[in-house]
Specification:
- This protein is mainly beta and about 350 residues long.
- About 10% of the residues lie in helices and about 50% in strands.
- Strands 1-2-3-4-5-6-7-10-11-12-13-14-15-16 form a 14-stranded antiparallel β-barrel.
Length: about 350
């Protein structure tokens, strides 16, 4: 599974030497922020319309009006049985120009308390467990977003862009800085919303630098591990297309459905439509709302082909589900993902959204 591969990258990057043009570079940004998105299989680029849009599709920020005021978003989730911690914090506010929005987001994915065994052995060859120390492997993304809405007779068109700074740190051994940009569009037509997101349109890069002591370099060589050298890691562009429609069941109940298609350009991937250099990864999401107070969600994504013990190919997928409660100006969302995964990689995701509206002039 893709997220297992991500975990391995985070915990063993110290011993990787070919960092250029990795297929899953900066993959922590593909996990997705917010329990709503996680519950809907990350199929939200068309329907996202709150503070979380700064990461998903910045164009969605323009759906907020000046009367919506300041919005705050926060999320915490744990992956791989609590080994990885994924956190998010953001806010969005209107500008002085009507229909324009700014947002700032901070994302962190980290694995803490990783044992450092490079000094496990003394010079005489004896083992000294007191020499073991801990370090963290963490990825950070700082995202600044801007969105604008243009009203048209057939419906509004929203444009948005995000600039992101990516910082990755592996204990005292390695650091990297990277930069990239996303551009998004949402077109509203009656009950439909069509969206396109050009992700990493500038080809996001990470410039890595390593700082091993001479003693640590000797240990790496003695244990048949090559010493990493300063290098550049590339995240190639993706194109995400989505469509969402709202069905009014009755005065109390509505149903929103969305489908996304992710076009990757970094070579053949294990996706439903797999080709080189472009693969297509679809996702589906549903959200039922009752009085805009209670939200029930379900989704499915990450279609992959796997071989079983009989060497027969089977199609697997990642289902998810969740619930949301609107309590005044506070929205509380919960998602449960990786249902039924025999590798025990399920995760609980909790996120909050708080709206602080300006006081009425009256």
């Amino acid at each position: 599974m893709r997220y297992i591969y991500l975990c391995l990258i985070l915990t063993s990057t110290l011993f990787f030497t070919e960092l250029q043009a990795q297929k899953y570079s900066n993959e922590f940004l593909s996990i997705g922020v917010g329990a709503r998105a996680q519950a809907m299989g990350n199929s939200v680029v068309a329907s996202t319309n709150d503070v979380y849009a700064g990461v998903w599709n910045p164009a969605g920020l323009a759906a907020l009006t000046p009367d919506d005021g300041l919005q705050l978003g926060a999320m915490h989730s744990e992956w791989f049985g609590g080994v990885g911690k994924f956190d998010y914090l953001a806010f969005t506010l209107p500008t002085t120009q009507s229909g324009n929005r700014l947002a700032f987001s901070l994302v962190r994915f980290g694995i803490d308390n990783i044992p450092n065994t490079l000094s496990l052995y003394e010079s005489d060859g004896s083992i000294n467990f007191d020499n073991i120390t801990d370090f963290s492997s963490a990825d950070y993304a700082f995202v600044g977003s801007y969105a604008k809405e243009i009203n048209k007779p057939k419906g509004p068109i929203r444009f948005g862009g995000s600039v992101k700074v990516v910082h990755r740190r592996i204990g005292p051994f390695a650091t990297s800085w990277g930069f990239g940009a996303d551009l998004g569009v949402q077109v509203v037509r009656d009950k439909w919303v069509w969206a396109v997101l050009a992700k990493d349109i500038t080809t996001t890069f990470n410039a890595w630098s390593f700082s091993f002591t001479d003693q640590e370099k000797d240990i790496l060589e003695l244990t048949n591990n090559e010493v990493p050298i300063n290098s550049v890691e590339i995240t190639r562009p993706q194109l995400i297309m989505g469509g969402a429609r709202t069905f009014e069941i009755n005065e109390k109940v509505s149903l929103l459905s969305e489908m996304n298609l992710i076009f990757t350009t970094d070579g053949q991937r294990n996706t439903l439509i797999s080709a080189d250099p472009i693969s297509i990864d679809p996702s589906l999401g549903l959200e039922m709302a009752y009085r805009k107070f209670l939200f029930l969600r379900a989704g499915i994504n990450q279609f992959q082909r796997e071989l079983d013990f009989g060497n027969e190919e089977t199609l697997t997928m990642r289902p998810s589900m969740g619930i949301g409660l609107q309590l005044g100006s506070l929205l509380v969302d919960y998602a449960y993902t990786d249902l039924g995964d025999d590798q025990n990689t399920f995760s609980h995701v909790v996120s909050l959204r708080l709206g602080l509206k300006p006081r009425s002039k009256e």
